[in-house]
Amino acid sequence: PPDVEQLGRASWTLLHSITATYPETPTPNEQNDVKQFMRLFGKLYPCWVCAEDFQSYMERNKVRAETRDRFGRWMCEAHNEVNRKLGKNEFDCNKWEERWRTGWKD
Ligand code: FAD
Predict the structure, then answer these.
(1) What pLDDT digit, counting tens, does each position of 33-81 carry?
(2) Among 15, 41, 48, 79, which residue has the most ligand 1 atoms within 8 Å of its CB, making it the best to mutate?
(3) How far is the CA of 14 from the centre of ligand 1 (A)?
(4) Distance 4 CA to ligand 1 centre (A)
(5) 77 CB less than 6 Å from ligand 1?
(6) Range of 67's domain?
(7) CB under 8 Å, gap of 24 or more: what pairs does 29-32 form?
(8) Which residue, judged by its Cα, is nearest atom 42 of ligand 1?
(9) For 90, which DSSP code?
(10) Is the CB of 54 within 6 Å of ligand 1?
């Protein structure tokens, strides 16, 4: 099986990148697409302990996809849940877009 850390970094890159390219004002179909994608992602994620916890997190915290910002923040909070579980620092979700879409303004 793939290395859990390497798989994790690659997966978060994919997931946050999907939120970054998500429309600002998605149609109902586009909202359904990402909800289905996340449900299947949680089901198929190839780290079984991770997948189980992530699915239960999504049961308690339904995907929010009404706007790009809502979805980006939802993903950031989901990632923070895993950060907490692993004893890592939480990320400031006000900065999700700067990190994943527009780039840091240094
Ligand atoms: P990562 O956590 O991979 O983050 C990559 C980059 O994202 C960071 O460098 C930072 O710039 C940015 N970032 C950090 N936090 C946020 C945030 N909240 N919002 C936006 N950007 C952020 N590992 C386990 O050991 N056990 C598990 O149960 C587990 N479950 C996982 C569940 C899922 C759905 C995923 C995708 C991964 C899971 N992982 C799990 C892997 C774990 O989350 C990390 O990816 C891995 O430990 C590598 O961590 P990292 O410190 O390199 O950075």
Answers:
(1) 999 999 999 999 999 999 999 999 999 999 999 999 999 999 999 999 9
(2) 79
(3) 11
(4) 10
(5) no
(6) 4-101
(7) 30/65, 31/65, 31/66
(8) 8
(9) P
(10) yes
- Domain annotation covers residue 106: no
* Domain-embedded: residue 93: yes
pLDDT score of 24? 97
Instruction: Look up the CATH number of the domain holding residue 84.
Output: 1.20.120.310
Residue entry with tokens 């910002």: 69
Atom of ligand 1 nearest to the CA of 89: 15
Distance CA 14, CA 20 (A): 10
What's the total number of domains in the chain? Answer: 1
Residue 106 reports pLDDT greater than 80? no
In a domain, 92, yes or no: yes
Asked if the structure places residue 33 within a domain, the reply is yes
54 vs 26, 36, 68, CA distance in Å?
24, 14, 21
Cα 83 to averaged position of ligand 1 atoms, centre (Å): 6
Does the complex come out with an ipTM higher than 0.95? yes
